[in-house]
Structures are given as C-alpha cells and as structure tokens.
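During data preparation, we tokenized the protein backbone, and the record follows.
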Amino acid sequence: MTNSHANPLPSPTGDRRSGTAASLTADQPVDAADTPLTPAQAFDALYRFCAPALVRQAYLLTGRHEGARESVEQAFQLAWQRWPEVARDRDPAGWVRAMAYDCALSPWHRFRRRDRAPDAPSDPADRALQRALMLLPPSYRRALVLYDGVGLGLPETAAETEASTPATANRLMHARQALAACLPELSDPAELRRRLIRLASAERLGAGEPEGVRTAGERLTRFWTRSAVALTATVIGATTLTLRTAPTHHLAPVSPGHVVQEAPAQDQLGPLPPEALRLHAADRKTPVGPPPKGAGPPDRLSVRNSADEGGRAQLPSEGAVLSCRGWREPAWPSRSGSCRP
C-alpha cells in the first residue's frame, strides 16, 4: 500500500512564493519611506496594497460580489481595532487574509437570504467552475484557494488553515478530485490555477476607500464600548435598587385559611337532652359523705345502683366512692382543719 501523503500534490508551474501569485495577490510593493508613518498612514498603505487581491480571493470563497467586499472590510476593521498587534506581526497581510477568510466562510451567512444564491459569472465555463467550488466543503475550498490560487506552499497553507500538513494535503487532494469529477479538464494543476485566476479576474471587483473603512471601524468600536458601559450601568442600578428595596429580615408567610367541608356531628355540640338533664339533677340531690370511721376498704367494687322512674340504673354520682383492691383511704379533713390519713 502506498502512502497517500507522500508527495500528494504536484506543484503547478511557476514560482511558489509565500502569498504571491499573479492576479490573486498584490503585485506592487509598498513604497518604503524614510520618514516613519503614522498608524493611519500605515493602515492605508496596507489596505491599498492588499484589499483588491483579497476581494478577488474572497469572491472565490463566497461566490458573491457584495459578500466578498464585506468580508474584506470587516477584516480590515478588525485590523484597525487591533492595529498595535497587527503592526508588530511578521506578516500583516497574512493576518488580514486569515481574518477575511474567516469572515467569508462564517456559517452565519447561511441565515441571510441574499447570501444563499451566488452571483454567477457570464461565461459558461466560469459558471461551471464556480458551481463546482460552491459544492466543496468550506475547509476544502479554503485550502484549494490558498494553495492553487494564492500560491502558498503546503506548510504555509496548513499553518493558515490551522491544520496539520497531512490533513491539509488530504483536503487538497479530495478537493482536486471533486473538481476533476465535475470538470475533467481541471485534473491538471496548471489548468486549475489558470481557471481560478480567470474566474477571480472576470468580474470587476473593487474595494472601498481606506478612510471609510477606518471610520466604520471606529464607529463600531464606539458603539460596542457605549453598549458595554450602558449594560454595566443597568446591572449596577438594578443591583442597587434590589438592595434598597429588599426586606432586611425574614417574614414568615401567613398560611391561608381552610374552609370546613363537613359539619360536626349532631350529638357533639348543643345542650344536653332532657333524659341526661334529669339524671344529672337526681345525682346532685344524693348526699355524699365521708365513709364511717374505722371502715376499711371494701373487697369488691361498690357502686350505688338506684333506679330512676324508668327502672334503669342511674349513673354513679360525682361523690360516689369507687374502691377496688389496693385501695388506700384518702385523707379527710378533721374538725381542726388539718388533714389526717
């Protein structure tokens, strides 16, 4: 079995330099001035040098003219916001290109209706190539544009796509196979490079002025700064209001009352019936005295049984003495007022 990563991609004709290729990269160097440039002047020089080529590259990724310009402008706005970092970078053009590619391939574009249909070129051959490019996964499309369009080497392409070299080579190989399946004439890397350059250069794609991009970036920065300040003030105000109006101690909740569903039984409330009143009155009339002196406790339980008018046994009175085994004579008060056993 042969190794699929051993020299998988034959290099197209021409010199392969880092980020330099005809019609897809900047072809004029930045004029070196003896006097140091201000940040605004350095940004404008970088924008004029890189923006036109980046718009053409973004068009190969998105297939839309307006989407390509928006992606490049957003990338330069981010570069202006982080200009100290970009100015110290070893490759400022590569930094902006990576941001432009990220903006162009953002998955949020699929939710916009205007970004769903690409702007088809007028030439049928270019239209077929664009259709084949849009069928590729975003990662495959990005690697193909960087390697075969921009002219980066395989290690540089892997570094910019944040992937390993074998993974990048695998993506490129599958992307070329997919394009060759749709358009057999693109199996030649040199022909593929030439067709990519022609597709990107067929449409007149221009970039805006650097002053407008800087102004938009500064306006966006002010907007987000003011939004952050307003949100922080709102949170502080809500917290202060809560601390001032919140109770300082716990208040026990009052349980709600319950409605009585069932009425009480009739014999539990109200006056006593007449029969009970007669028994109670008869029992109170019966005199109750102390037991005779010297009388011991009875051997059995004694209860006064007297019949009432109806012949039924009366209930024991309040003063009746109930005695059983183990009864102990209570203490009765003496004539002198003291109690004795």
About this structure: Confidence is low (pLDDT under 50) at residues 1-22, 300-329, 337-341. The two ends are 120 Å apart (CA to CA).
